[in-house]
């Protein structure tokens, strides 16, 4: 089966399970050696159907959170859309993909996720995927009593809500109580809002590249900040699975 995948997390996962992915988004960057030979047909919010047509796909993969409804509505090929909002959604999403693609590898991944969900863990803050950066605060700052503000964007500053996949990962790791989690999924915050919260900043490497702006961010917000690898926290599928399994094995 020839598959065009418009979801970076799923592209990596499908390739790991031997699925024949013939088209991808420009953001599908893992694994680098394999995606280099796969045609780019757009981004997560746009698709060039003429490029898709040249690939003659049997199925197009979307996700309701990652992609837009008009993309699916205009798709002239059979498609399947997942809806992943939390770690708890993963076993079912993987089983549904397995049915669509007749792929046993995806069923095995679903079983591994279910095993994780059956055994919630509690890690120390230092076990988060923190990254070295000359301007980042020391890891020990995370043991402070101040709440954590997870930042995903700058100009405007944006954080995450309690109904997002990222928050569900922190909750599974026993650290959900440390996060400032909002009712809306991706709230915008003013400088005054952040000052009033007086948080420790968890600056994610994606979707905004905070590694390039960490010094500027700290100067602007006047709060201590650590740099955190966003990929294992928001790339659901095999990347998040491997991260969670590694933390469970280290306990």
From TrEMBL:
What InterPro entries does this protein's entry cite?
ABC_Transporter_SBP, ABC_transptr_periplasmic_BD, Vit_B12_bind_prot
Pfam families this protein is in? Answer: Peripla_BP_2 (PF01497)
Statement: the UniProt record of this protein carries the keyword Signal: yes
Q: Supply the alphabetized keyword list.
A: Signal
Question: Key word Amino-acid biosynthesis present in the record?
Answer: no
Ranges for the Fe/B12 periplasmic-binding domain? 3-66
Check the record and name the NCBIfam families matching this protein. Answer: TroA_like
Q: Under which name does UniProt file this protein?
A: Fe/B12 periplasmic-binding domain-containing protein
């Amino acid at each position: 089966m020839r598959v065009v995948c418009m979801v970076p997390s799923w592209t990596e996962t499908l390739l790991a399970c031997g699925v024949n992915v013939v088209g991808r988004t420009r953001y599908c960057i893992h694994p680098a050696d394999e995606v280099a030979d796969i045609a780019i047909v757009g981004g997560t919010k746009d698709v060039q159907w003429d490029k898709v047509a040249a690939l003659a796909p049997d199925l197009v993969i979307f996700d309701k959170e990652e992609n837009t409804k008009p993309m699916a509505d205009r798709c002239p090929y059979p498609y399947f859309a997942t809806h992943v909002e939390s770690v708890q959604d993963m076993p079912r999403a993987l089983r549904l993909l397995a049915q669509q693609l007749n792929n046993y590898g995806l069923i095995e991944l679903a079983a591994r996720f279910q095993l994780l969900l059956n055994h919630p863990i509690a890690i120390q803050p230092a076990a988060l995927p923190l990254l070295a950066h000359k301007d980042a605060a020391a890891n020990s700052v995370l043991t402070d009593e101040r709440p954590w503000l997870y930042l995903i964007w700058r100009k405007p500053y944006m954080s995450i809500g309690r109904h997002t996949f990222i928050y569900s990962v922190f909750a599974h790791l026993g650290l959900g109580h440390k996060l400032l989690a909002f009712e809306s999924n991706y709230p915008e915050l003013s400088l005054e809002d952040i000052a009033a919260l007086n948080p420790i900043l968890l600056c994610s490497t994606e979707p905004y590249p905070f590694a390039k702006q960490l010094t500027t961010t700290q100067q602007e917000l006047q709060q201590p900040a650590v740099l955190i690898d966003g990929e294992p926290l928001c790339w659901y599928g095999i990347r998040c699975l491997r991260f969670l399994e590694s933390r469970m094995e280290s306990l």
